[in-house]
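Narrative of activities, Objective 1.

The group set out to show that a structural description can be obtained from nothing but a protein's sequence at a throughput compatible with the screening campaign. Below is one input-output pair from the validation batch, recorded exactly as produced.
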Amino acid sequence: MNLMKAMNIRFLTVLVLASSTASLWAQTQVASNASPDPHSATPAATAPQPVITAADIQALRDALAAQQLEIEELKRQLQQRNNATTSIQPSTPAPVQPSAAVPVQPVPTQPSPSNSAVKSDASDSSSSHSQQVAELAPAIPHQEQNTQNPLTPESTQGSPDIYNKQMEGPLTIRFRGIHITPGGYAAGEFGWRSRGLDADMATPFNSLTMPGASQSQMPELFGSARQSKITGFVDGRVGDVDLSAYVSTDFLSAGTTSTSTSTNAYTLRLRQAWGQVKFDDGWSFLAGQSWSLVTEDAHGIAPDDDIGKTNDVRPKTVDSVYNVGFNYARQPGIRIAKNFADRVAIAVSVENPEATLTTHGNAANYLVGEAGASSSFNSLSTYAFNPSPDIIAKVAFDPGFGHYEAYGLLDRFRGRAFPCADSVSSGTPPVVIVGPDCPSAADAGTAVGAFTSSKNGGAIGASARWVFAHRVVFGLKGVGGSGIGRYGPAGLPDISINPDGTVHLVKNLLGLSTLEWHSKRFDIYGYTGAEYASRTYGFDPVQGKFVGYGAPQFNNTGCYVETPPSTANGSGGFDPGTLANCTADSRVVIEGTTGFWYRITNTERGRFQFGAQYSYVTRNTWTGDGREPHGIDNLIYTSFRYYLP
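Output recorded for this entry:
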């Protein structure tokens, strides 16, 4: 850039001198070739030749001096612009608005034959430099360009090397080579469900009530601002290495003292908190809590933010758990990725899992975890003893039309079994019966013979997404395996328990289809998804019954019979009756969703938009005693959101 500017200045100087010389030469030549005066008594042949006097030389010097002043002024202005542009980091230059460029005004000088030529050159130079500045300006897109339509394919289907530029905006603070970008949005939302679930914007799909439940007779309406998000992105560059970090939070969390009675005192929730090192040769390393590697990307393999600026293909629902069938998680881990010419990307991650368990009828002969320590976890919730991280490997292809992904996942589960804890006594005198793995009846009810067992699970998944006419998006996603229920919004179980107290994996299938239409102001979407959990059960010879998950011998006869509310512990009308004889293990949860977003305003001062969603959800259960009850719900959500620019 400096070399080009120096060459422009030299060329301008030569042009000015040449123009001045040519002008003076022209004046002399006109004078020497002028027609003789017919009234002159002296013949033309004897007319005296013009002589260059000292005054002429002085005039030339004055003209050159004036032109030199103009050149110096141009150099000063070029240097000012050079300082303004080179002070910005090359990886993320600050936006320079061409309209803010100072116009080059020629310095008033004494009249000279070449003054018009100097003005013309100055104007050309100013135009050329303004064009160079304008070419630099889009390096960080203006907010209208960057988030004009954050949900459209154009804004998400891009090379990973523009990730940082997409994340930055008018609020970016630049300090000592570090770029700090605050972000987020404020949300005012309302929801209505045809059957009460007593839940906020995150729908608990696996808790849809059965026909006999009192909640099924009572719709619910609720409002919420808890999906509002606060985000921060920090980026800096050292040589060929880009360093970045991202933090995102919302309020969809409830402490043990949270209430909606007066102050809506809910707790801040950590969504993402990660740091990344990215090299110019395509390698990157990420550590912290982020979207799992199983989560689909828009292009390549790169981290996704939480407000839709970059690499985001999550369902555009108001519902904070998206749509049944979407495959995702946010959990701590580390990831290594390599990008090959923006066409192929590969990545491997190790991530922290949290196993989910559902089982029925088992004796107290198993242990998989305990309640959280009050100093760091929620003491009213339980946490599994996870034996190892989940290992995930993924490859992504971007051949030019469409985006394609495939991944494999390996997970592991562990439990401790107590064979002597499964025992019964019957008859007179009583006879103690214990399981075959218990050393003797004398050890019944003790921890004698306890052992630890582990089971390996895993899955394979694939997805494809195409964009047609820059407006229509069509996508398909599917994953199948064992012990992966926690990776779906329906919340189906990963494991159940065998009669002997050991872990038994649940087979899971998840699928989602996507159809979206995008314009400058509107986004219209439709999703259909399903999640399946297999039967996983066995017969316990000690108790003489089936245990586990989804056994056909389980009793579902009471799923249609309403029961009165409980009065225990002084519940006072806030404890619906529990259905008797209603196991109702979920077989498949299906959801169909349609909705839209309308951007009311979208400027450099922020974006204000309105959205609405309708969903129809069914929870189909495994047959028990010949009955297969269904839970059904209709969901309507609305949302007003203001996004920071």
